[in-house]
Design a protein that fits this description.
Helix content is 39%, strand content 21%. The chain is an alpha+beta fold. The model has no long low-confidence stretch (mean pLDDT 92).
C-alpha cells in the first residue's frame, strides 16, 4: 500500500471543521486590526531563503526541501513565510501603492525535521507582517494582535517572553563577549553549538540541549549591550505593553532562529505543550528588504503554528466548531422514489439547506440509522404510498414526531422549521 510521507498528515472530514473554525476566527481578528491577506506560491527560488533567512541557519543548512526543476532552476518548498511576503512586497511594488502595508497569511510550510507532537514536515502557520514603519507602536500592536487572537480563542496559561537583539552594531560587540564566555567550555557544548560557535554564536543561546542550557545560565546578556537607539526602542515597546495590559516576562537569552531579526523579538508559550512550548514567535526585521534588493523597509511580524495551536485547544477543551448537522435526509423506498428523489434534493438545496439522499438502496431502518449518524434535523420518507398521495412522511428528529406534508408545501415547511 502507498502510504503518506513521514511527517505529513491527512486532515480527515471529522477534523476539518476545527481547522475551518480556527481559520475563520483568525481572518475575523485580522480584519479587526485592518490586516489584509496575501498568498504566495508554494515554492520559491532557493536563493530567497538562503539570503533572507541566512545560509548558516538550521532551516537553510539542514531542513529545506530543495530540488531542481526541468529548467535546472533550484527551487525550495517554502519553509517559512516572511521572506516570501517580503519578496512579493518588493516584486509587486506594494510600497508604491501605500506607505504602510499590513499583511497576513494562512499557509502550508515544509521543513525536513524530525517529526514529533505538533511538529510535522508539512505544517501550517498563520501570521502577520507590518511593513513600512520603525515605530515601536507597530511592535506593540503586533504583539497585541497575536495575544488578542489567542484570547479570542479562549486560551489560558499563556506567557509572553520579550527581548531585544539590537542591531548589527550592538550584536558585533556582544558576539565577541559571548564567544569569550563560551570558549573555556566549548568542548562541553553539543556538536551543533560547537559548529555555531564560529558560524552563528547567538544561536547557541537558543539551544534546547539541557547541558547547553545549563552552560548558558551566566552568559552575558545582549540587552546589556544595546546602543542608545535600540535601548529607547525596547523601552518604548515595553511601555506600550504596560498600557495595553499585556503581561510579559523579559528573557535576556531569547533569540530567534532566523538571521533577519533586529531589535524586538518575542515568543508566546503555553504550559500545555511541555518542553517545546512555543505557539507563536516573531519580532522586528528592518534589514530584510535591503538584503533582498528592495527599498529600505522597516518591518515587524509574527508566525504561529496551527497544529500546535489545535493541540493546546484540545488540551484546554476549547471547541470552536459547532457539531455538523445535516438539514434534510431523503429516504426513498423503491426505484421510483429513488428516481424522483434527486430532483427534490435539487429544490431543497436551492433554498440554502443541506440535503442528502440514500444512494445504497438500504432498508428504512438502515436509512434512519444513517440519518441519526449525520445528526439530521428532518427525514423525508418517500415510498409508494407517499408518491400516490403526493406527500412526504416527515420525521422531526429533534422532537421525535412524524407528520405528513404535501409536496406543494414541503419547501415552505422546511424553510420555516429550519428558521426556528
Amino acid at each position: 500500500m502507498i502510504r503518506r510521507i513521514k511527517g505529513t498528515q491527512d486532515i480527515l472530514p471529522d477534523e476539518t471543521p476545527k481547522w475551518v473554525a480556527l481559520e475563520n476566527l483568525i481572518r475575523k481578528m485580522m480584519g479587526r486590526y485592518n490586516f489584509h491577506e496575501l498568498r504566495t506560491p508554494i515554492f520559491e527560488q532557493t536563493q530567497l531563503f538562503a539570503r533572507g533567512i541566512g545560509q548558516l541557519t538550521d532551516i537553510v543548512s539542514k531542513e529545506m526541501y530543495t530540488f531542481l526543476d526541468r529548467g535546472k532552476k533550484q527551487l525550495t518548498l517554502k519553509p517559512e513565510m516572511t521572506a516570501p511576503i517580503m519578496r512579493a512586497y518588493i516584486e509587486n511594488k506594494l510600497y508604491a501603492k501605500a506607505p504602510l502595508n499590513k499583511l497576513f497569511y494562512i499557509a502550508p510550510l515544509f521543513r525536513q525535521e524530525n517529526p514529533q507532537a505538533g511538529r510535522l514536515r508539512q505544517f501550517h502557520q498563520f501570521g502577520a507582517e507590518t511593513l513600512g514603519t520603525p515605530d515601536p507602536n507597530a511592535d506593540a500592536e503586533m504583539i497585541d494582535l497575536a495575544w488578542s487572537i489567542f484570547k479570542e480563542i479562549g486560551l489560558t496559561n499563556l506567557t509572553l517572553r520579550l527581548n531585544s537583539v539590537g542591531d548589527p552594531n550592538c550584536r558585533a560587540d556582544y558576539k565577541i563577549k559571548l564567544k569569550e564566555y563560551i570558549r573555556p567550555n566549548l568542548d562541553k557544548y553539543c556538536p551543533d553549538c560547537q559548529r555555531r560557535y564560529d558560524e552563528n554564536p547567538l544561536r547557541i543561546l537558543d539551544c534546547k540541549n539541557p547541558t547547553c542550557v545549563a552552560l548558558n545560565q551566566n552568559a552575558p546578556k545582549l540587552v546589556d549591550n544595546l546602543c542608545d537607539d535600540c535601548r529607547a526602542h525596547y523601552d518604548a515597546v515595553k511601555e506600550q505593553l504596560h498600557r495595553l495590559n499585556i503581561p510579559f516576562a523579559e528573557d535576556p537569552y531569547l533569540v530567534r532562529g532566523l538571521d533577519y531579526y533586529t531589535r524586538t523579538v518575542f515568543e508566546i508559550t503555553s504550559s500545555a505543550l511541555g518542553a517545546q512550548n512555543a505557539i507563536c514567535g516573531g519580532g522586528r526585521y528592518d534589514l530584510l528588504a535591503k538584503e533582498l534588493d528592495g527599498p529600505d523597509t522597516p518591518a515587524v511580524g509574527f508566525a504561529a503554528g496551527i497544529e500546535r495551536l489545535l493541540m493546546v485547544m484540545e488540551q484546554q477543551g476549547i471547541v470552536l466548531a459547532k457539531k455538523a448537522r445535516l438539514d434534510v435526509f431523503l429516504a426513498p423506498l423503491g426505484d421510483k422514489a429513488r428516481a424522483e428523489g434527486l430532483a427534490w434534493l435539487q429544490k431543497i438545496r436551492a433554498t440554502g439547506l443541506s440535503a442528502e439522499m440514500d444512494l445504497l438502496g438500504r432498508s428504512i431502518k438502515a436509512q434512519m440509522r444513517e440519518a441519526n449518524r449525520q445528526n439530521t434535523r428532518f427525514v423525508l420518507i418517500l415510498g409508494e404510498n407517499e408518491l400516490e398521495k403526493q406527500e412526504f412522511a416527515v420525521k422531526l428528529m429533534d422532537k421525535g414526531e412524524q407528520i405528513n406534508v404535501p409536496f406543494e408545501t414541503i419547501i415552505d415547511f422546511l424553510e420555516k422549521e429550519s428558521a426556528k
